[in-house]
Amino acid sequence: MTTDYYYDGTNGSDTTGNGSEGAPYKTIKNSTIGGVFNPTNVRFFIKRGTTVEIAGGAIHPQGPFYIGPYGDGEEWATLLCNNGGSYYLATGSGCTAGDVVHFDNIKIVDDDLSSNVSGVYQTNSGSGTIKVTDCYIQDFFNGIMTQRGTAHQLLRNTIVGCRNVGIMIEHASVAAPSNCLIADNYVDASSATNDGIVLHAGTSNGYGNVIRDNIVIAGLEQAIDVLQMFPGTIVDGNVCYSNPAQPTSWEEIFCRGANSVISRNLIFTEKRRGIMLDNVGITAKLNIIIGKAGLTGEVMLQALGTCTNFKAYNNMFYMPASFASSAMLCNSGVTTGTAKNNLFINASASGSSRFINAEVRANLNTWDIDNNYYVQLPGSNSTPWAAASSFATWTASTGTPDAGTGIVATESPFLIPSYQDRGQHFDLDKILTILAGNALIEKGAHIGYSTDIAGKQFWNPPSIGPIEYMRPRTNR
Predict the structure, then answer these.
(1) 8-23: average pLDDT
(2) DSSP for 242-277, written as a single string
């Protein structure tokens, strides 16, 4: 049987209250009702517009648990944590598979900015499923940290002020979590020493994890970081960028998970790399990577030498004025790969601006590079192909890349999203509208059934770039 307890940080009483809605407690104390810090089959309700303190300990649910708001209005029900050095635990060792610990629509605040604790934290000794939905998590070392279990759902949360990581999935001593959904969150890790979202470690692989439709401001390291214990991860539809003061030695999205898919992300690069990949079978498709005018920038999409069977298709790269690096770089050792249907737009006059870097040329005879569309805006570098070559030299080189339908144009077919709009929820389908008569329509090659930027399956043959032209319904 589920037991409910009510808390009102303004009008509640730990002396006369009994935890009912009519006589709520004021603070969450172990001594108030006995065993509250190790609850099971319990629901806690916090009054909207009030702040309730966890006093003298941490909550360790040992089974099914829910905490959320009650009362009218739109104000947050706020939980003040870490008072006196304690921290807020999401699960205890008694939680087992099938137990759900749910944090819903509350504000969770750390009052000790020197602490090393997490707003929602799952131990490595318990199990269960963590749900964190519609919460505001502020000023913790880690916003959310889950260390084991499956099918965690971290949805529609706002995480700000984290000092280490916004969302961390990991523990080196237990199996990596699987089938987790991290979606529709806003994570500002701009003051953090590590990542915005990271799938980090485990004794065995975690499969089926999805990071989708988040807005992530990177920390000192990546916006989104996927390590090798998480093969087959889907990183889809995220908006990623970093604080311009952050160093250049990192990237917005890093993936070491074999056979993962990095798709439909909008990435604003300041001085650092956009996407870096470091394992076999990874696909990067339908991403939009925008460099910032006035900065030399770094490689927009880099596949390290480990990336056998790498596929890059239907991406868009915008190389702004002063860009002095490569849009796409595949390191020596990547002997097999596919680069098709990508849209490269160069606005940089720098002689160092490159569409596809020279390091891939040694293996062009084993690569499939074709159907890419190249735009050289007026005043841009006239020889931005590998080894400072012209388009004619590029198509005639070993493996004859882009010998089929590669096109050079001098006018951008799309409106480029602005850095001034960072942090918004972008409707990418509207930003990148493709009109009838556009040179990109049906110029792509069919690579495999996929989805466009709006999530719809490709027509055959597909267009070039990250969207698909849809004929007016009356003409079908």
Answers:
(1) 94
(2) E-TTS-SSSEEEEE--TT-EEES-EEEESSSEEEEE
